[in-house]
Amino acid sequence: MNNDVNDAHVSHDEHTDHGPPKGIKRWLFSTNHKDIGTMYLILSLVMFFVGGAMAMIIRSELAIPGLQFVHPEFFNQMTTMHALIMVFGAVMPAFVGLANWMIPLMIGAPDMALPRMNNWSFWILPVAFGLLASTLFMPGGAPAGGWTMYPPLVLQTGDAFPFLIFSVHLLGISSIMGAINIIVTVINMRAPDMSLLKMPMFVWTWLITAYLLLAVMPVFAGAVTMLLTDQFFGTSFFLAAGGGDPVMFQHIFWFFGHPEVYIMILPAFGVVSEIIPVFSRKPLFGHDSMVYAASCIAFLSFIVWAHHMFTVGMPLTGQLFFMFATMLIAVPTGVKIFNWVATMWRGSMTFETPMLFSLAFVFLFTIGGFSGLMLAIAPADVQYHDTYFVVAHFHYVLVPGSVFAIMAGVYFWLPKWTGHMYNEKLGKLHFWVSTIFVNITFFPMHFLGLAGMPRRIPDYSTQFADFNTIASVGAIGFGLSQLLFVGVLLTAKNGAKATTEVWDHPHGLEWTVPSPAPHHTFETPPKLSSADGLH
Amino acid sequence: MIRKSFLSALGLSLASTANADWALNMPKGITDLSLETYNLHMMVFWWCVAIGVVVFGVMIISLFKHRKSKGAESAKFSHSTTAEVIWTTIPVVILVLMAIPTAETMVKIEDSRNPDMSIVVTAYQWKWHYKYQDSGIEFYSSLARSSVEARRKESGIDPLEVENYLLEVDHPVVVPKGAKVRLLFTSNDVIHSWWMPDLSIKKDAIPGIVNEAWFVANEAGTYRGQCAELCGKDHGYMPIVVEVVEPAAYDAWVNSHDVEQEQ
User: What is the ipTM of this complex?
Assistant: First the structure.
């Protein structure tokens, strides 16, 4: 099998005219999935630091009681922008970047199915974030009504309002195009003998994610468009004075918003499902049930949205339905976690940086899952809702959840991308300081929420002081330790040459192309050997 | 007897810890339903701990035993239908065990029939307005002056020196102990949320909509909460204070208000 592929490359390397154009044109006009993937990942890293800087402002202000650095208006702008940038700028583009790089390599396709659209869906993003960031300098400042944009509050936004709406539209267009591209690629361009159930888990979870994006992004666009017409064109979709209903926005928003949280976690499931088997030296346990579990989660994500709204005054039957449906999600999520543990069980484990991040993912995502189960219990949710308990919950699933999985993926595939092994010592240091500080930051927030501290407040009563100080110290530490990650990336070129396989007998087509992966791969479809399938 | 008094002393000391400023857990509150909510919270918490012990336990054993540096050879198995059926079924059973008592409590929470009195709570950016429907008493309730002065940036006042910083109001809500009080929530501008942890009530105050909640307070005292839904720049500065008093004291309070309003 390896020979077939390598032969294809040898013959390919003779076509020197296929090399990328030089300079800025290579990036601006790129239709190459690897270059576009790289651009997505770099954008995501930049946005991670921009959103991170905002988090540093938030945590600095909250370090001790009283207002020290910013005014409440600006504080609210920071919480709003931090969320928008981290969700749409850091996490989502990172997974799209990983998808761009890895899906064609994993399924044996020469590129994404729609390469020009791929270019467009990337280059929309800097424009969208330019629009969004420009609002920081506008009269009235950036949006401050929360990333959830609940009316009527969001309609009090100043000049930034239409910019917020249009940037969300652009982000949505980009996501929809990215999703279409991934679906078309996965459905049509797999290696001839790769049946759907033979696809690697990362491809599977992304296929499901792409359908989620396709289903909910238009809904989100519709919701914000209604906000726009309420503000400027005299409609009253959400305005009580004109016969509208402010709660309807929340229903529409969370019909998008809940699948959105799975959009941010399913690809993470895929990444760790690729990594854990390699470093356990054992096939992924229950590949097919992992696929069914991910599909179940995706389906359930459409019928649980109102668990974000247990305090808006829903009828009892509505509350019961959304509570039961939400609790059900624990079942397929449990299956995934049990399967990862079963994959490790009786393996032969080593603990390179990608594995360390994946293990921390399993531990800490599970803690986020536990608080998620607690949040499903409607009467208790009434107490947790809009407190730091919720902040702790979603940061546990998003930071040591999604972000750790992204980092695990970057460490895992970086040698394939650059052709060099990264600095393992630096990588492990990055892992340990990140893991320690992430817990110092977010664990105390559970206590703060239970003790009664609401979220999105710039100042708090003095009994919350101690845990806030601890969380702030953790946050600054976590922020600084991400500079180590940049260090790892910048020094990657100095590392030892990576082999084709990179790791110890990994399975999958991506490990059959040379490291670094040539600009064009799989121009003739590869044949799957039994070693490359997952079974 | 001695034992009983020892236990009650222990109970007292625990209770005083629970009332201390520094808290780790959800308050048990002062209503039957807030206690039930607390118990549900603890029930799910202990289930999570139990599941966590099993899952993390197996994982940690595996992490130490099944490592290559200890010469572990990897097994080749990749599925087991039996195992998968077991770990799909057991969670379903646990969820059903959680869902039944929770649903029972929810039915009780929604039963707001036959209240003894009703208070209309109207939210404003950034204060609360209370109107007692039976006695006609009404007033605005805003952040207390001491906090207003200390909250400004560079106010020069140390918040630690301010009693009940950001949790004190000028006019608290006064309610009688033991009465079924119905609260009706609405808003004059944006969405707010009236949260009183010790009553286990958090209900959104939404323009154009009237929401309701109810409680029967079992203990007299002063209880504090805050707005829980982001409502603009002073979202963090619209606290809620409820004073639960003996019925006689409540009547006196109502009468004193009547006098005040006549004057």
Answer: 0.91
